[in-house]
Structures are given as C-alpha cells and as structure tokens.
Specification:
The structure is a homodimer. With about 220 residues, the first copy, chain A, is mainly alpha-helical. The first copy, chain A, has helices at about 20-35, 40-50, 50-60, 60-75, 85-105, 105-115, 120-135, 140-165, 175-180, 185-195, 200-215. The radius of gyration of chain A is 23 Å and the shape is flat. Chain A binds a DNA duplex (19 and 19 nucleotides) through helix 3.
Chain lengths: ~220, ~220
Amino acid sequence: MAVGGGQAGPGGEGGPPLSRSLVLDAGMRILESEGIDRLTIRGLAGKLGVAATAIYWHVGDKQALLDGLAERVIDQLGDVSVRGRDPVSRVVSIATSLRETLLEGPELVALVHRQGRTAALFQPARRLLVQELTAAGVDGATIALAVPAVLNLVIGTVLLDRQLERQPAQRQTPEELWLDDGLQTPELLRHLSRPVDDRELFDYTLGIVVRAVVEP
Amino acid sequence: MAVGGGQAGPGGEGGPPLSRSLVLDAGMRILESEGIDRLTIRGLAGKLGVAATAIYWHVGDKQALLDGLAERVIDQLGDVSVRGRDPVSRVVSIATSLRETLLEGPELVALVHRQGRTAALFQPARRLLVQELTAAGVDGATIALAVPAVLNLVIGTVLLDRQLERQPAQRQTPEELWLDDGLQTPELLRHLSRPVDDRELFDYTLGIVVRAVVEP
DNA sequence: ACCTGAACACCGTTCAAGT
DNA sequence: ACCTGAACACCGTTCAAGT
C-alpha cells in the first residue's frame, strides 16, 4: 500500500516533511478562504494528505492550533505606517492605517479577538501612538487614556463593520425605523435614512478625539 | 414504560406541555449559566426531559434557536434610562446606562453580535439619543454621525471588556511591554503601567465626543 | 521521532414511525 | 399536532501500534 518513494513524506505527494509551520500555513489558508467555522482538524489533515492525529503531534489540540494561528495574524497584521507632518495628522494616520489593515482580514481579526489576544495585535500601534503623543508634548496621564481611546475606536468600528457585512438583509427600511416617532422633521429623517458611511463615521469620531487630546 | 399520568407532558415531570416559549426559556438559562459553547440542542432537550428532535418541532434548527434567543435578549436588554437636566449629561446618561446594562450579560451581547442583530439591540438607545440631540438643537447631519459614534463607543468598550475578563493572565507585565523603547520618561512609564480603568476610559472618551457634538 | 487506525464521546439534522 | 428512535454525517481527542 505504501507509495514507491519510501521517505517521500506524508500523503504520497513527495513534498517536504510535515512540520508545525506547514500545518499553520495550511490552517491559515483555510481560515482566509473558508472561515473559522470550516477550519477543522480533520479537514486540515485531509488537505495535508495526512491522518488527523498527525496534527496533534505537530501543533497540539485545536486550542493550540487557534493560538498558533492568532500569533501568526498578530505578526502579520500588527504593522502600521505613519504619515503626515503635524502631530494630529500623524496620529490619525496611525489609527487609519491600522483600521484599514484589519479590515482586509475581518475573519483573522475575529480569531485574534476570540483568542483574547487583541492587546498583542495592537501593541505596535500602541507604541507608535505613545511615541507621537509624547513628541506632541501631551502629558503622561492624558496619553494613558488617549491611546486606548483611539484603539477602542478602531476595534469597535472593525467589529461592527464585520457585522454589517454578514447581516443578510435589512429587516426594516431605514425610513420605517423612524416613522412612528413623530417628532422628527423631514430634514432629520432624510439624514437618518441615509446609511452612514463607515469610513466617514470613523474619520469624524477619530478627528474629534485626537483634536481634543492634542489641542486641548 | 409510560408514566402513569398519560397526558402528563414530556419527560414524565408533569409540567405544562412543551412550547416554543418554554424551550427558549431553558435555552436562556443555559446560555447565561454555561455560555454559548455549551448550549447544544441535545443538552437543551435533555434538560427539558425530551428527545432532541422535539426541539426541531418547536423552534426549528440551531440557527433558529439562536435567532430566537437573540430576539429575547434584544427585548430584555434594549431598555435604557435617561437622567440629568442639561443635554450633555442626558446624552451621557443614555450611553452609560446602555453600557452598564450590556455589561451585565456579556455572553448575551456576544450572541446578539454573532447573530448580526446589534443594530436592533441599539434601537431604543438610538431613538433616545436622536430625541435628546434634537432637543439640544444639534443639526440633522451632525446627529446622523454623532449617534452611531456614541453607539460605536459603547459596543467597542463592551466587547473589549469581555475580552479582558477571559484573558487568562498577562503574558508580560505592563512594565516589560515598554522597557525596550528607551524614549519614555519614568513619569510616562508609570502612567502606562497602571492598568486603565475601563469605566474611566469610557467616561473620558464619551465626554470628549458628546461635548464636541453638543457644544461645538 | 513521527505517523496511522481504531475507537470513544460527542455534535446537528433528517425521517419514518408512533400516538 | 406533537413526540420518539434510529440513523447519517460529521466533530475533537486518546491511545495503542507501527516504522
């Protein structure tokens, strides 16, 4: 029943021998393409041409697998860029680039969140924010509050964004939501009915917070 | 093998006949006490003294069960109170009371979020916020941005709070996190090392946003 | 050291069958 | 109308056994 090669590695495909790193690679691919619900030990093993128990040898049980994948996401998605000259626009650029990176892989962010590693994911951005606010002359007590405030903003909008994507369909039209209130003017109703642009909302709130911190 | 009563209802316990409402009641109890991972159709049926397939008759499959439970949470956790005289403190009180209600059942909030019903959960608060900001003379375009900004703040801090609870232990002490940066003063390091109080952080950010909206 | 196969204890779900 | 039991196709995990 054995394939001819003898040492040809698992699955008869002749690739390199299985390793923790290769298992995590394959897990990452499943995670991105099929989502976390479809990431199973057995399916992962199948894709690698190996018995399910081989996974246990290289990475441990499912919890350890998810931890390993979260660690990869942290290394891969944590990087942020800084642009601009004045402190306000530099801080804004950090938060914006972090948000955009995270929005590229909402499934990956959800995994990190589930594993309780969000703090680690944010650490590079946190460092940069502290650096910029220090350079801008903001005092320590304010920095200690302002940095998590900005990061909260990012995670909040990213998690909600993900939600809106999955929401299959509006159950009520925006107008219906407000109709029976009575006290709204037509002008207000018009504004409330237009769906809010997520990017615009983020920029709006971020601008308020950063300006309040840097230019008190 | 049958119990003596004949029409004594399922499970031989003699209670009222099974209904959709009773199934959801039991599901709610499991959800709050054991968490969403332990909420299974079979376990639920077992607790009701009934075959697993009976659940399907009354509420449908697992997706329908979770939807039904989310709807209950929305009805039960959506209510908010308004306090204070001036517009700023009234708006702040709405956001604060919503946050505190949600923090009482983080598992329940997580379920609503998973089912994509966060918007419905927030609807009562949204209504009140629009009402208060209108009374405060804020224009429609600003209201349309400010209301979701405040709600984003709430959901962001609630979801992160939940995260911190589950995080088993700090992997690094706060000091270690910053040690190799060099550019921090001891005073800044002291502020960064103290863990941020969630409530203080929320009040801080909320205050900034609400004041910027109401007193521009 | 690395991997397989069988086995166990769970899931959700369907369906024919009972009353 | 309401409920059961058996069955199917999945899970994660353990463990003895192979090379």
